């Protein structure tokens, strides 16, 4: 059988989704199965699935597969940085060095931002991200706040390279469904962070706060990451999906 090109593979999968052969909520065949079916390379199949994802037709998740989300393309503008997996990629590509783990009482602006009562005790995990192999190049400081009931996660994070959210998921089955993110320019005020990032108080930084929500919409993790101004950039393209 001759190799089928990407456009033809995409057309056949689109027809299958539109006709109901692959109903919404079901999984498409695996990458391996599609490679065999169309006598195509894994690179070609992944490019086709990415195109379907860009159109809002499917979602892809590691160890789960490619799930059909809609029967027709969604006409909308959307950034290429579109999934939870994309968003946490920074955490995979840079080494984490835990600085401290302990319970703190959250107050003031931080309590309001997290959405908890003044003085609420939360477990705080503080860490520095470094460029791989560059102990002299701190990129970011992150404070993660979780329920003190997850104390064992605080211990696990010292011995694991997995993200805190992944540890919570594997230990307690609580999975990220959505992340709310706020990115803004700021100035450094926390001496802990300044010491870790080798910055003076008042230095320009980029502050990213994230609320991690489960399928019920309840937040179970909150993080504040401070980046050196010279270590972070955000680039994206907006694509329009046509019906």
Automatic annotation (TrEMBL):
InterPro entries, per the entry: Bact_HTH_transcr_reg, Chorismate_lyase_/UTRA_dom_sf, Tscrpt_reg_HTH_GntR, UTRA, WH-like_DNA-bd_sf, WH_DNA-bd_sf
Pfam families assigned to the protein according to its UniProt record, in alphabetical order: GntR, UTRA
HTH gntR-type domain mapped to chain residues: 3-71
Example of a GO biological process term: negative regulation of DNA-templated transcription
MF GO annotations: DNA binding; DNA-binding transcription factor activity
Transmembrane segments: none
Domain of life: Bacteria
Keywords: DNA-binding, Transcription, Transcription regulation
Protein name: GntR family transcriptional regulator
Organism from which the protein derives: Burkholderia cepacia (Pseudomonas cepacia)
């Amino acid at each position: 059988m001759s190799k089928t090109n990407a456009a033809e593979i995409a057309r056949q999968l689109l027809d299958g989704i539109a006709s109901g052969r692959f109903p919404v909520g079901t999984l498409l065949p695996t990458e391996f199965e599609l490679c065999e079916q169309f006598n195509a390379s894994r690179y070609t199949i992944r490019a086709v699935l990415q195109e379907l994802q860009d159109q809002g037709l499917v979602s892809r998740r590691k160890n789960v597969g490619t799930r059909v989300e809609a029967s027709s393309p969604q006409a909308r503008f959307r950034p290429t940085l579109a999934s939870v997996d994309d968003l946490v990629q920074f955490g995979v590509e840079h080494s984490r060095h835990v600085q401290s783990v302990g319970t703190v009482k959250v107050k003031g602006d931080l309590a309001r931002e997290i959405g908890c009562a003044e003085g609420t005790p939360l477990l705080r995990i503080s860490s520095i991200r470094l460029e791989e192999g560059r102990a002299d190049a701190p990129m970011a400081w992150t404070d993660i706040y979780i329920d003190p009931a997850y104390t064992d996660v605080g211990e696990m994070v010292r011995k694991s390279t997995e993200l805190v959210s992944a540890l919570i998921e594997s230990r307690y089955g609580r999975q990220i469904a959505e992340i709310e993110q706020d990115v803004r320019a700021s100035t450094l005020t926390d001496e802990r962070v300044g010491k870790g990032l080798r910055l003076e108080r008042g230095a320009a930084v980029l502050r990213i706060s994230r609320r991690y929500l489960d399928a019920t919409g309840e937040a179970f993790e909150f993080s504040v990451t401070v980046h050196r101004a010279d270590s972070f950039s955000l680039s994206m393209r907006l694509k329009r999906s046509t019906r």
